[in-house]
Amino acid sequence: MPKEASFSKVERITTKKEYQAVFEKGRRINGPFMKILCSSGEKDRKIGIIISRRIKGSVKRARYKRLLREAYRRNKNMIPFDMKIVVVVFKDIRDDNYACVTQALLAMIKRAGVE
């Protein structure tokens, strides 16, 4: 797999401290089934994904996480390098396919003025 198409651990928000920093100073963009919080001026590009427990079934939550990771991995060249993004999914994704998730994520990033 080429280096630019990977999703390594250094690209993930992993600690509570990092999540709190984005929640406190990040810009919120609401969508139909998820919201994103973006904070710029960071030292590197990272993403964190949160799936609400309101979405019943661990299989469904895991699928949504996989879809969002894949959407980020394939389109991360459209996101500035100094950006941290937290994606919070709070409703069932009606059309849980890759195209729907990617389109929603990129539209929200564009609305945030990131692109």
Radius of gyration: 13 Å
How is the biggest beta sheet arranged?
A: 4 strands, mixed
Question: Which structural class best describes the helix and strand composition?
Answer: alpha+beta
Number of strands: 4
Helix-strand pattern: HEEEHEH
Structure annotation, total helices: 3
Uncertain stretches of 5 or more adjacent residues: none
Average pLDDT value?
86
Shape: globular
Task: Report helical residue fraction.
Answer: 25-40%
- Tell me the β content: 15-25%
Strand order of the largest sheet: 1-2-4-3
Termini distance? 25 Å
Key phrases:
4 strands; single chain; alpha+beta; globular; four-stranded mixed β-sheet
Summarize the structure.
This protein is 37% helix and 21% strand. The chain has 115 residues and is α+β, with helices and mostly antiparallel strands. It has a four-stranded mixed beta sheet with strand order 1-2-4-3, with helices on both faces.
Q: Could you explain how this protein is built, in words?
A:
By secondary structure, the protein is an alpha+beta fold. The protein has helices spanning 16-25, 58-75, 98-111, and strands spanning 27-30, 34-40, 46-51, 83-89. Strands 1-2-4-3 form a four-stranded mixed sheet, with helices on both faces. It is globular, with a radius of gyration of 13 Å. The mean pLDDT is 86.
